[in-house]
Structure to design on (566 residues):
């Protein structure tokens, strides 16, 4: 079984919102019609986004860290939003595990958005249907694109390569290895939704210096200082031609 | 959660209609065994008409909640998994049964299916009423479970939710039946009235239980599990947009804590003590105005109760939307 997903490296994300704008650009230009943008340059702008980057401050000044946190649909393996849909418009694809909404069947009752603990679903207030991240399903299988571009728009746009895309069920895939080796974790594991998307934690690069490494153990004088002078006698190089 | 008046009217109106229908069938059952005087047919048919009108009004209100009401017929499809879909099936089925029940009474078409000498339990209207009672309770369960089945809305995720929906519906329905019978069957006023008081007292106990439960709730999600950072001090600095979004509108009631608290006390007064006193006064004085007032006050209180029910629920997605 394939389960496509994103792995987002919080250690690398700089919070530039390139994934947000590229997502919006790709998904507002697709066959499903535009994503709602109301009053975008006005006083009270609002709109539908599949992906948002939020910012958190961890710790207390001066020991603080800024965590930029991109959030989109996590394509849960046990998605709570799917069984509650009364029309079957919300579904999880068997073949690749992407959770999708059939915009032609959706009645806009918003019940699925109540049933998502992550707030990943946003209603399009112009089209009156529920929308959410599709993992760029109209892009990743498009054979008219060069193979390197058959990835979600957000992944391609990320300037720091903080976003990885692949099959989390394949243990050899780049994403599985990243989850395994970098300590990838799911969000809100307490609800048993088994999100397919994973996040890689912030990591600090440290070197460990032991006490005895601060003094030279092979120090013949048992104290730090200039090394003893060598004899001024001839060197081997002076008496041999090789 | 943001309380939507479409859903508030849907749940309160159909609840009252269901309670009224149960009251009618109860009266017919008591009548059949001779415990209550038989009523003329118009009592049942006109009562069913009122219940049907409330159900239709609730259904109309629910359409205002939908983005695409013209596709509402599709929502019967997923009854295997979705309580909302089950409600969409149960509601019209119940409406149809109420219609047939009222029509049979109106046409006085009430043959005994088990022969002319069989006991009155075999009468057609009684059997249709029984089917209606089954559908009525199925509808109560569906309506309540729509909310109770979302496990991370911890205020709703309790058996008390469908129980309260059922009992609120029955209490308000019997209060309406009391007022209705004051016009069409005065000898039933005390019967319906005391049942209405009983159900109001019982639902006070179960609603108080859920209020106490919700006050002591320990939320399983925190900002730490939401973003997966193990630290005692995490503060949101931005939510990813300068303005609001669906996420900031749909899941917040947008009112102050004082407003929320005042709505709680308003519904606690309007749904329970005031109607009980008005019912007692109405039963003892025979005043139809007081009985009608009892229903109006209790229904107004129920709107406040339902508003509070939605507003009080704290969605875990709010953890991601704490500051602009």
């Amino acid at each position: 079984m394939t389960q496509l997903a994103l792995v987002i490296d919080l250690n690398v994300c700089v919070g530039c919102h390139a994934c947000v704008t590229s997502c919006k650009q790709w998904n507002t230009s697709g066959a499903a019609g535009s994503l709602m943008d109301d009053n975008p340059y006005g006083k009270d702008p609002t709109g539908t986004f599949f992906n948002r980057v939020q910012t958190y401050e961890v710790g207390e000044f001066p020991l603080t860290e800024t965590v930029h946190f991109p959030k989109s649909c996590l394509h849960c393996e046990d998605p709570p939003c799917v069984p509650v849909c009364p029309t079957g418009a919300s579904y999880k694809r068997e073949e690749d595990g992407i959770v999708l909404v059939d915009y032609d069947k959706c009645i806009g009752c918003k019940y699925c958005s109540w049933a998502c603990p992550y707030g990943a679903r946003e209603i399009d207030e112009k089209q009156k249907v529920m929308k959410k991240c599709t993992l760029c399903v109209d892009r990743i299988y498009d054979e008219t694109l060069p193979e390197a571009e058959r990835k979600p728009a957000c992944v391609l746009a990320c300037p720091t390569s903080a976003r990885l895309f692949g099959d989390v069920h394949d243990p050899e895939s780049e994403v599985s290895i990243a989850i395994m080796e970098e300590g990838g974790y799911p969000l809100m594991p307490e609800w048993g939704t088994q999100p397919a998307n994973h996040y890689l934690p912030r990591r600090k690069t440290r070197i460990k210096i032991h006490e005895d490494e601060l003094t030279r153990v092979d120090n013949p004088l048992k104290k730090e200082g200039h090394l003893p002078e060598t004899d001024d006698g001839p060197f081997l190089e002076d008496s041999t031609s090789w | 959660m943001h309380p939507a008046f479409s859903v508030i009217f849907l749940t309160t109106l159909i609840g009252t209609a269901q309670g009224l229908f149960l009251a009618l069938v109860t009266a017919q059952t008591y009548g059949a065994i001779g415990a209550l005087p038989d009523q003329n047919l118009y009592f049942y048919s006109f009562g069913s008409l009122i219940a049907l009108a409330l159900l239709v009004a609730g259904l109309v209100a629910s359409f205002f909640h939908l983005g695409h009401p013209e596709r509402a017929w599709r929502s019967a499809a997923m009854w295997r998994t979705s309580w909302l879909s089950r409600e969409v099936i149960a509601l019209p089925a119940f409406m149809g049964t109420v219609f047939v029940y009222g029509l049979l009474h109106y046409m006085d078409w009430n043959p005994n299916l088990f022969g002319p000498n069989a006991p009155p339990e075999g009468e057609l209207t009684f059997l249709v009423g029984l089917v209606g009672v089954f559908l009525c309770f199925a509808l109560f369960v569906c309506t309540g479970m729509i909310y109770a089945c979302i496990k991370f809305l911890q205020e709703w995720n309790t058996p008390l939710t469908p129980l309260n929906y059922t009992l609120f519906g029955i209490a308000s329905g019997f209060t309406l039946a009391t007022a209705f019978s004051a016009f069409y069957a005065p000898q039933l006023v005390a019967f319906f009235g005391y049942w209405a008081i009983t159900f109001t007292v019982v639902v006070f106990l179960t609603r108080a239980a859920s209020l106490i439960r919700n006050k002591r709730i320990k939320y399983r999600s925190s900002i730490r599990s939401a973003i997966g950072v193990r630290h005692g001090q995490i503060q949101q600095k931005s939510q990813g947009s300068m303005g609001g979004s669906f996420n900031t509108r749909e899941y917040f009631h947008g009112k102050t804590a004082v407003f929320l608290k005042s709505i709680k006390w308003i519904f606690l007064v309007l749904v329970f003590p005031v109607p009980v006193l008005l019912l007692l006064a109405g039963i003892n004085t025979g005043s139809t105005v007081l009985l009608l007032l009892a229903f109006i006050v209790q229904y107004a209180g129920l709107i406040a109760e339902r508003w509070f029910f939605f507003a009080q629920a704290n969605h875990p997605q709010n953890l991601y939307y704490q500051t602009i």
Remarks:
- Chain A touches chain B through 61 residues (CB under 8 Å).
- Chain A has seven helices and eleven strands.
